[in-house]
Amino acid sequence: MPVRTFVLSSDSLSGASSDLSLEKYEKDLNASQWEAVRTTEGAVLTIAGAGTGKTKTLTYRVAYLIESGIPASTILLLTFTRRAAEEMLNRATSLAGVPCSQILGGTFHAYALKLLRQYGTDIKLADNFTVLDQSDAEDVIELVRTALGYHKKGNAVTEKRFPKKSTLYSIISAAVNRNVPIETAIEHTYPHFLSLTDDIKKIAQAYQNYKRTNALVDYDDLLTLSVELLTEKTDVRTRISGAIRYIMVDEYQDTNLVQAQLIKLLSEVHGNVMVVGDDAQSIYAFRGANYRNIFDFPKQFPNCRIIKLEENYRSTERILDLTNAVIAQAKEKFAKRLYTTTKLGGEYPAIVPAQDERMQSKFVAQRILELREEGLELHQMAVLMRNSRDSFDLELELRKRNIPFVKYGGQKITEAAHIKDFVAYLKLLHNPKDVLSWNRILKLLRGIGPKTAQEVSEWIKTAPNPYRVDTSGVSPKYLESLRKLAELFTALTTSNTTLTDKAERIYDYYLPLMREQYFDDYPKRQKDLENFLTILVNYSSIEALLTDLALDPIDLSAMETKATQKDESPLVLSTIHSAKGLEWEAVFLINALDGIIPSRYAVSSAEELDEELRLLYVALTRAKKYLYILYPIVCAGLGQEAYFGNPSRFLMDLPEESYEKIVLVKAGSAPRIAPTKNQNE
DNA sequence: AGCCCGTCGGTTTTT
DNA sequence: CCGACGGGCT
Question: What pLDDT is attached to residue A482?
Answer without folding.
Answer: 83
